[in-house]
Amino acid sequence: MTDTIAAISTPTGEGGISVIRVSGADSIQKVGRLFAFKGKLEDVSSHTVHYGHIIQPSDRERVEEALVTVMKGPRSFTTEDVVEISCHGGIISVKKVLDLVLEQGVRLAEPGEFTKRAYLNGRIDLTQAEAVIDLIRAKSDRAYKIALRQVEGTLSKHVKLLRHRLVELMAHIEVNIDYPEHDVEELTTAFIQDKCGQGIADLNRLLHTAEQGKILREGIVTAIVGRPNVGKSSLLNALAQENKAIVTDIPGTTRDVIEEYVNLNGIPLKLLDTAGLRETEDIVERIGVERSRIALTDADLILLVVNGNEPLHEEEKQLIAQVKEKQSIIIVNKSDLPAAVELSYLEANVPPERIVKMSVKEEEGLDRLGQAIGVLFFGGQLETNDMTYVSNVRHIHLLKQAKQALEEARKAADERIPIDMIQIDIRHAWESLGELVGDSIGESLIDQIFSQFCLGK
Ligand SMILES: Nc1nc2c(c(=O)[nH]1)N(C=O)[C@@H](CNc1ccc(C(=O)N[C@@H](CCC(=O)O)C(=O)O)cc1)CN2
Ligand SMILES: Nc1nc2c(ncn2[C@@H]2O[C@H](COP(=O)(O)OP(=O)(O)OP(=O)(O)O)[C@@H](O)[C@H]2O)c(=O)[nH]1
Ligand SMILES: [Mg+2]
After folding, report:
1. Which residues surround ligand 3, an ion (CB under 5 A)?
2. Domains, the chain, ranges and CATH?
3. Fewest beta carbons less than 10 Å away: which of 253, 336, 338, 425?
4. CA 349 → CA 139, 334, 344, 421, distances in Å?
5. Which residues are noted in the entry as (6S)-5-formyl-5,6,7,8-tetrahydrofolate-binding (predicted)?
6. What are the residues facing 85 on neighbouring strands?
7. Distance from the alpha carbon of residue 76 to the mean position of ligand 1, in angstroms
8. Which atom of ligand 1 is nearest to the CA of 69?
């Protein structure tokens, strides 16, 4: 039987109240010795709160005024008997109460040990436990929502369904190996290939959410590039709703890369305004142009701005050729002025959803730009509330491993390799997914995962 553990579960420092959590078979009896109130703690019903005082058991001196909650296992967070003591906030009083609890022979919990017990006792699976860490660490509303969905177990549900299908496939193959004369649906290679293909597609979908999730958490690195004076800095200012970059009608105004985080239609962008691209003798400007080219290579998204009121320059045609293979949008700016740009040239080179006409000066077309980016990165859907996002590196690694195993199985089927060999690959995929939800995972890895938690969680 596991021992009884305790820890302060609220942050240290001054606060309204502080909570000490105690979990284990002896928790009710041990806290009962320290708690003076109208009844006997062993006799109270589960999920009830009681007012009283924490006392020094030797002389019954009052140490603290407290509310004590009892949650009897298995109906508790850890599935063990849990007692929570809420005392006045502050460093000294909570510490005193904790010391009294520990003096009863209760052990101080390790970081994450309550959540680890919840996992080991089957209340939550590993992805849910890991999501608890993400939830605590979430720094943005969106990161928080993604983690909360995972605490609720959405990722596990997906992965368990996938595992279930793989078990069915393995059973199907097994029957075929053991009873070749048995009257099962004939196991053609096409059948295995089809099932593996479905699994690979599912895994790809989950892995794709990892990319999207990263974008949603960290922002799309977006380089605004183009010739001098086309309105790049004006665009940054319009998106930031602030005069962050200097705007003048002198070509070559921006010299350095200027960064700004903005939120466009719910999509976070890390904008980089860059120096206008041109040949120049000016040393400072030349360094700026060099930096623009680096930003252009490194960005996740390129916004190539051109003047709508003049024909395309030769360098712009080259730039279009360069960026069209990447995630990029051509912004045809200055639509408030008479149009002179060769739209037919643009349309022949870039799909229409990646060409956005706008007037930055009149702030016309910013919405359309947001939509175009949404289509490019999320296929137009940006439904974060109901989505499962894979965000943990350990999960991504295991999903990739499972995908690779299924790809090998499919290839083996293709090459007419014996069915029991193919079975091994499918089993590997099943095992990787099992490790993801914590079904077949070693003790050291469990310890490593839970040690990332804070004390008292
Ligand atoms: N004070 C306190 N707040 C907390 C926690 C906690 O442990 N203590 N939690 C932890 O970090 C989270 C909540 N997690 C919990 C999960 C299940 C149960 C529980 O007692 N479940 C029972 C009863 C449910 C019911 O009555 O419907 C059960 O599932 O059987 C309690 C807390 C967040 N807030
Ligand atoms: N008419 C019109 N003028 C604009 C528009 N957008 C920007 N401008 C003007 O174009 C000029 C250049 O704007 P900037 O934003 O400094 O251009 P830039 O691309 O950053 O230029 P460099 O930093 O020199 O590369 C300024 O005079 C702006 O007011 C627009 O939509 N319509
Ligand atoms: Mg500029």
Report:
1. 232-233, 253-254
2. 5-109 (3.30.1360.120), 134-209+390-441 (1.20.120.430), 221-368 (3.40.50.300)
3. 338
4. 41, 21, 9, 48
5. 21, 84, 123, 457
6. 20, 68
7. 6
8. 1
